[in-house]
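Dear colleagues,

I hope this message finds you well. In preparation for our joint manuscript, I am sending the DUF8001 domain-containing protein (Halosolutus amylolyticus) sequence together with its predicted structure, so that both groups work from identical material. I would be grateful if you could confirm receipt.
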Amino acid sequence: MADPLRITAGELDEDAILDALQNGRRIVVTTTTLGTDHEVTLRYDGSVYYCDTPTRLHRHETEREMRTCVRNMGYASDSAADSE
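The corresponding structure tokens are as follows:
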């Protein structure tokens, strides 16, 4: 398995994140909450998308659900959201 793609929240747009996931990459997103850095791991097993946060594992059954999560949680830049 390839090393995970490491990014900072907002560094990539939704399309780039979903493309990487669908191509088998795990993505580790560094995000800051209340002044503390946290890592979130995003992955896709071919049928279900996962967001593994420090406190919870989120499952998303569709690409649309994953896009919504990535957008709402601030993991992606706003550029893809602006085009919808």
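For the figure legend, we might mention the following. Residues 5-77 form one domain. The longest helix spans residues 63-72.

With kind regards,
E.M.
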